[in-house]
Amino acid sequence: MNIKIRLSLFFFLEFAVWGAYLISMGLYLGKEGLGTNIGWFYSVQGFVCIFMPALMGIVADKWMQAQRLLGLCHAVAGAAMLAACSYGVSSAGHVGFGPLFTLYTISVAFFMPTIALTNSVAYNALEKEGLDTVKAFPPIRVWGTIGFIAMMWTVNLLGFKNTPYQFALSGGLSLVMAVYSLTMPACPTGASGERKSLVDALGLRAFTLFRDYRMAVFFIFSMLLGSCLQITNGYATSYLEAWGALPQYADSPMVEYSVIVTSISQMSEALCILLIPFCLSRFGIKNVMLMAMMAWVFRFGFFAIGNPGAGFAFIILSMIVYGVAFDFFNISGSLFVDKETDLSIRNSAQGLFMMMTNGFGATLGMLCAQEVVNHYVFNLPEGADVLPGWQTCWWIFSAYALVVAVLFAILFRYKHQPEE
């Protein structure tokens, strides 16, 4: 089979594993009375991103071929996720935070490194076929987003969004991916691969970049904006379904198909990737990052003023601007780091960028967001109208993103030279 087709399926499965629960898990946790702990479930993804991808990278560099390590990680992640489903089913109505969180943490601790390993395996396969990775990779990678969206729709249409069966779907796909990974071309290890010290793999050597004012400001604001990354993943569907408490909206498609509505965000993300080369060359990294920051302002603000009735258009607009908010920050930021850092620490600098955004930023952001949501929503008396509380939360998050944008515009110094 053509390697491009094989890799397209490869990425479809990889991100289908994640899409099966990432957006809908908050609904299930809320149903089981664990709504006040949603932030812990989403923040632990950021916490494991601080060290697990780097450690697995060292193992792949020195001891185990990347495609085999990928299979092992998926096998452990899948087994833990299936165990989480089994526990959820057997303890329905009495699910304890400790057991479920432990099984979930084991799963994501081994899943998160697979994202980087999947890229490594794909690059190796394309290079072995003599293909240009810059040209060949993007059309293949987009199938990951398609897989993510497909599982969001599947979970919603099968009625899994409020049940632990979403974990079973994710775990089953992970086991399939574990086997499929072993069919990929062998990756080099040991002397054939690049050996990294623990300091390099963790991105610690790149901390010398903080001596440079511009790079220090960039990384600090990357962490501050990274705080926004998981908020809507954790709480968007719970908010949309909260409108179902009002009789006039009980049968609204936005409530019934909340996960599918949210999937518009991922569709926008796939399309906005195509705008990045033009925007970077035309406007420069500072303006592109400001676009991302303002998109987060509108992402949260549109949620605050939207509703299943006359305000439905604002909910859709919130989904559409997510593509700019996510892509213009993550992908453009990564390209800026690649361009502005010396070759000798470029890999470490990318590790630092991921650590500041998806590690420290996402973890701290979700824990803080959890406190806000718990105060205004989940800690209210049973039967209370939570919608005003939800709207207050979105305005707070929007105001935070606006403050970050204004400070970034003032403090980050960068003069762009447009390409001819």
Topology:
Elements: H1 3-19, H2 25-31, H3 38-49, H4 52-62, H5 66-90, H6 97-128, H7 133-157, H8 165-181, H9 198-201, H10 213-226, H11 231-242, H12 253-256, H13 258-272, H14 276-305, H15 312-340, H16 346-378, H17 387-411
Helix pairs in contact: 1-6, 1-7, 1-8, 2-11, 3-6, 3-16, 4-6, 5-6, 5-8, 7-13, 10-16, 10-17, 13-15, 14-15, 14-17, 15-16, 16-17
Could you please describe the fold and organization of this structure?
This protein is mainly α and 420 residues long. It folds into two domains: 1-196, Growth Hormone, Chain: A; 200-420, Growth Hormone, Chain: A (Up-down Bundle), CATH 1.20.1250. 74% of the residues lie in helices and 0% in strands. It has helices spanning 3-19, 25-31, 38-49, 52-62, 66-90, 97-128, 133-157, 165-181, 198-201, 213-226, 231-242, 253-256, 258-272, 276-305, 312-340, 346-378, 387-411. The two termini are 42 Å apart.
**CATH fold-level topology of the largest domain:** Growth Hormone, Chain: A
Question: Strand count, sense and closure of the main sheet?
Answer: none
The portion of residues assigned to helices is over 70%
Overall form: globular
Outline of this structure?
The chain is an all-alpha fold and 420 residues long.
List keywords for this structure.
mainly alpha, single chain, globular, 74% helix, 2 domains, Growth Hormone, Chain: A
